[in-house]
């Protein structure tokens, strides 16, 4: 139907973004193509990777026992997407396809090596999430393609993570995901970071990983992580590409990146040590 109708059609799943654009008069499609009843689009499946159908709602992800078992932080973060009315109808595929720079699920998914499966009359193809989201409201999806599913690679054992989301408006100003895999955490002599993943969203044109900051943390002992964490936070801030807008100035956003990367790393390290941090931050969510 999309191939036949071309630019006169828009894909309809949850409609949380699409209907808003239509009400504002910014988009006037002649046809809506509902994809929620396509087989597999509302399913969550296990395997070597976790597969989430494009029409699975945020609420379903939040409540899924399989997601909690395989990628628990994904379910925890889904709990804080927008509000419960949006979570009950909004879908993961729709969220990623809309590519709103101030929408935060994609930030966390980057640390799980997420990829998307696209289907069209020409066949199927798979893209990494980093390649799929090209910029603000822009993806690599062609007009006749559907985002079919999202695949995630669960973290291995001895991995500890934190997700921080900050904002004073309806949409978040900043999102930070920090993931640390630690060699033998809790055992004598086995406290070094063997893999670090940092993703920052909402301040850049699209969510991004921070490779220079990740490299600074590799091999660092969690018993003496603070200096490296500060340097990694500064590297992440320097790599950010923010713009002045109603969420704050570019300089303000860079400083916030540094502050919240440090905080996220401290929380992840505290969890590796078996302690759940108790500090809370105004206008921020910790998952």
Task: Write up this protein.
It is a single chain. The chain has 287 residues and is of the alpha+beta class. It has 2 domains: 37-152, Uridine Diphospho-n-acetylenolpyruvylglucosamine Reductase, domain 3 (2-Layer Sandwich); 159-286, Enolase-like, domain 1, CATH 3.30.390.50. Helices cover 33% and strands 24% of the residues. The chain is built from 12 helices and 14 strands. Strands 3-4-9-5-6 form a 5-stranded antiparallel β-sheet. A 5-stranded antiparallel β-sheet has the order 13-12-11-10-14. Strand 7 and strand 8 form a beta hairpin. Helix 11 (226-239) packs antiparallel against helix 12 (250-272). The radius of gyration is 19 Å and the shape is globular.
Task: Please report the first level of CATH classification, the CATH class of the largest domain.
Answer: Alpha Beta
Instruction: Name the CATH superfamily assignment of the largest domain.
Output: CO dehydrogenase flavoprotein, C-terminal domain
What's the CATH topology name of the largest domain? Enolase-like, domain 1
Q: Structural class of the secondary elements? A: alpha+beta
* Rg, Cα atoms, Å: 19 Å
Number of strands: 14
Sheet with the most strands?
Answer: 5 strands, antiparallel
List descriptors:
287 residues, alpha+beta, Uridine Diphospho-n-acetylenolpyruvylglucosamine Reductase, domain 3, Enolase-like, domain 1, 2 domains, five-stranded antiparallel sheet, globular
Can I get a quick summary?
With 287 residues, the protein is α+β, with helices and mostly antiparallel strands. The protein is built from twelve helices and 14 strands.
